[in-house]
Amino acid sequence: MVDSRLTADNTSVRRRRACLLCGRRFTTYERYEKLPVVVVKRDGRSDPFERQKLVDGVLKACKKRPVSYEQIEKLATDVEQRIQDNGFLEIPARMVGEYVLDVLAGLDKVAYMRYASVLKDFEDLDSFSDEIKKLERLKSDQ
After folding, report:
1. Residue 127 class from Cβ within 10 Å (0-12 exposed, 13-18 middle, 19+ buried)?
2. Residue 40: half-sphere exposure toward Cβ, Cα within 13 Å
3. Tens digits of residue pLDDT in 24-62
4. What is the dihedral of CA 65, 122, 139, 72, to 10 degrees?
5. Which of 47, 86, 110, 127 is the right S-S partner for 122, CB 3.0 to 4.6 Å?
């Protein structure tokens, strides 16, 4: 190998190489390949992970809240990165939702409760109350 460096956009590695037999030089590009992740729903169905579905759900939770689209995009990027970092090819939808809640807890408490109520399928006021207490504990731990 003659030379190795990141490309300008940091998405791949550019390598200059020389053939050991003929001495000719050539360039290769190595990119990190993201494996497709499948989200397993509560009922057992599987769907490919779609970032836009995640963004749409968070947009609904953040409706009429002081949360910018850029913040939602960053949340989606953070959650997507966390999913990729786990290395799972299949991930329960509930776990994806928990990742979203982790970020929403620091972003907007009302949006957090809206998202949690759908994710956790609250059936009564006690469920809401328990989740609010959990959120308050998270706030005091920070």
Report:
1. middle
2. 7
3. 998 888 877 777 899 999 999 999 999 999 999 999 999
4. -40
5. 127
Sign of CA dihedral 34, 40, 46, 52: negative
Residue with tokens 């970020």: 103
- Within 25-124, residue ranges assigned H as helices are 51-61, 69-86, 93-107, 109-119
CB 16 within 8 A of CB 1: yes
Structural element, H or E, at residue 5: strand 3-6
The amino acid present at 58, given as its one-letter code, is V
What percent of the chain has pLDDT above 90? 54
